[in-house]
Amino acid sequence: MTQIITVTNQKGGVGKTTTASSLICGLHQRGAKVLGIDLDPQGNLGFNLGLDIGSGSTVYDVLQGTCPIEAAIQSTEYGDVLPSDIMLSAAEVGFTAPRREFMLDEQLAGLRDRYDFIVIDTPPALNILTVNAYVASDGLIVPMEAEVLSLVGITQLQETIETVRATFNPNLKVLGILINKFNGRLTLSKDILEMAQVVAEQLDSQVFEAKIHRGVGVAMAPAHGQTVLTYQPDSRPAQDFQSIVDAVAGDRFPRPKPKSRMRYISQLFNG
To answer: Could you tell me the mean pLDDT of each successive run of 10 residues in the chain, 271 residues long?
Structure first.
């Protein structure tokens, strides 16, 4: 059964795309069939996963009804991706048909038996694209930085979640709040963590036990068309993200066991 997860926060710069691309990569590494969907007009999810942005059809064409969704999906070494581009910025005024909140959900109906996970990256706004993602999703992951303004963004998000639950998708759950750029030695980080736990309780959710620590590899990986999980797999942030993948994948797709050093050397010599 396909699990559809949306990564969301109306505040920009909190690590939504980094989180989405790391989830896609990590789940794919474990053998899951994964589709990433970019609902952000900036198109950064495809870029992070090594796509040549600007070539081929996009999610905008799919939602417009001018391209079948199967024809717009592109394959990468990290899984399949339905890319975006700047044309999607016209969605709020361009998509006005009845039941416009269900456009994405209806497009995904034919794909639900093809993938184990569908991961949706959303724009930093509570607009029709974000609502479409919530309507189609089983669960939400809410990244935030360890700062007050990021926390305020989550409290504003709560009203939209409750509206979607009441009107369109009563089964929508918040899987957890994910704290990015965490530094446990700072008093501010500790204070924000305590406040985030209060907000999580209001959302009937949790703060993920794993926190994403700072690391230069997180910022550098997209320039190489990679996620930090492949660019610096042994780094602290990569291991933090793997812990989040553990929480999402559960027992269905366990983390691959690392090869022993002697076995690795033997494979090098014996092919």
So the answer is: 94 92 96 97 91 85 94 94 91 82 95 95 92 97 87 82 95 95 83 90 94 91 90 95 96 80 51 46
Work out the burial of residue 173: count CB atoms within 10 Å of its CB; fewer than 13 is exposed, 13-18 middle, 19 or more buried.
Answer: middle
Give residue-wise pLDDT tens across range 31-84.
999 999 999 999 999 989 988 777 789 999 999 999 999 999 999 999 999 999
| C-alpha span between 231 and 225 (Å, rounded) | 9
For the record, the structure tokens of 132 come out as: 């479409």
Cβ atoms within 10 A of the Cβ of 33, count?
14
Q: CA geometry: angle at 64 spanning 59 and 70, to 5°?
A: 50
- Going along the chain from its start, the domains and CATH numbers come out as 3-270 (3.40.50.300)
List, for residues 139-160, the tens digit of each pLDDT value.
Answer: 999 999 888 877 777 877 888 9
Q: Give the C-alpha separation, 143 to 8, whole Å.
A: 7
Question: Positive or negative CA dihedral for 33, 4, 2, 207?
Answer: positive
Structure tokens at 264: 């690795």
pTM, to two decimals:
0.91
Q: From start to end of the chain, where are the E strands?
A: 3-7, 34-38, 74-76, 79-82, 117-121, 139-145, 173-180
* Cα–Cα distance measured from residue 134 to residue 8, given in angstroms and rounded to the nearest whole number: 9
Alpha helices in 49-138 (DSSP H): 59-64, 69-72, 91-94, 103-108, 128-136
> CB of 68 within 8 A of CB of 21?
no
